[in-house]
Amino acid sequence: MNNTEMDINWTDVACGSAASSWNGYTYQGKVAMYTMLCLINQIGAGNEDVNNYTLEIELFEDFCIKYKGDYYSIHQVKSYQDKETIGGYKATVLELLGKTIIQPSVKEASLHTAINIKEFTVENLKNDLIAYVPRKKKDLFNHFKKLLFEEGRFEGAWSKLNINQHDGKINVNRVVQVDEINNRIKEQLKIFLQNDTHRSPSSISVENLDYAYSNLLHTVNNLIADIHLKRQSDPVITFNKVLEILQSENVFNLTSETVASLLMDDLTTYFEEYCEEQGIDLELEEEKAKIWIHHIDVLKLLTPEDFVLICRKIAPNIKMKRSDSISIAEYKRLIDQHGVKQMLFECLFTFHHMLETATLKNDILLIKKNKVASLITLILNSGRNACSTVGKDIFNNFNNDESLLELLFEVETYINKSINEEYKGTITEVESDIDYKSREKFTGPKKIKFMDIKSAMEEFRSNE
């Protein structure tokens, strides 16, 4: 090894190559949370040693577990649905192997995948890695190849790598399908709560598990956001902090944060499914990645209450009870997966040039042209009576929810899947505390227009 290479801090190089792209609601973020919970349950919440562990995100690797400040395990997460052979993961394997050498404290390196990788021989993989020509991180990867093959350190590094396996230093399933990860997290939550001697067994209901899951997700996501925004200099989440959340009396509370977290979780999950179904690889399609990140970041800046209101805004025909006892299932009707995939995501990518400047709550997902405001909705209704059915539902909501009415009053056109008609309704009264003069502004007859997505594409693409 020449003097120049000896002077390079390869850990700094490896850390500098990481990108801040995920959050607590993505598959990567959830795999990190799942792994952390598995290790907490493995160690035992009552074991003081658990306080020595931290979760580091997107620095040295996708995520790492550190013990007393040193790297204990390193992890890469891949959600590919079409890469069943090890050949699709050559760069990942090379990187994980190399990093176990430049950080000797690493006890284990894990490749987490959404599908099982077919059997392969180590010798064939080794030959493939020797022949591999990196297109990115060239200096780093070439250094790893030198360490592994010229210095003969492959076998030692290989002994630390876990692919497909369940057991290891951390007992975690390393193959978890995208649509299974939520349940895996809840399984570990249930184990933790059942072992918590301060909890009554009767408190661990399916509904309370949903609340605990959502509240944990919300808090961890906020911690990740603080790390991305550099509010926290060290990009780690302590296991002790997670224990505080799970042992808190508030973990089973249904709050606006709980609801917003569940809806954001659904939205993010459906987007990952949409990308998979449409063959969209955000690592390769940078423009689409940029569009999605922009809009999701705008939504994350909203208060939990305002985010829930935006979900109501794009589902204006869904009736919600005005009650403190609304169930999670009822809230989840606002983010219909078919409406989100067929309408919201399609419209974001198609009309992003007309949406990207929106930052105010009233303007989010609103297209303005010639002083006419058109709203992107999740409405999929079709058929002869679709217009009257949806129209009645919207006006019923107008007459029963002043916050929704104020948010939608300026909207003239509702972009939807199939309806291309006008509907005339009457706002008879507004149940609110607003003064009489303001209330008078909202009451009376009102006409709204429904525009199907095909017509909207012609209307708003024509002036690009």
TrEMBL record:
Domain ABC-three component systems C-terminal: 174-418
Pfam families with a match to the protein in the record: CTD1
Species name: Metabacillus lacus
Domain of life where this protein originates: Bacteria
Protein name: ABC-three component systems C-terminal domain-containing protein
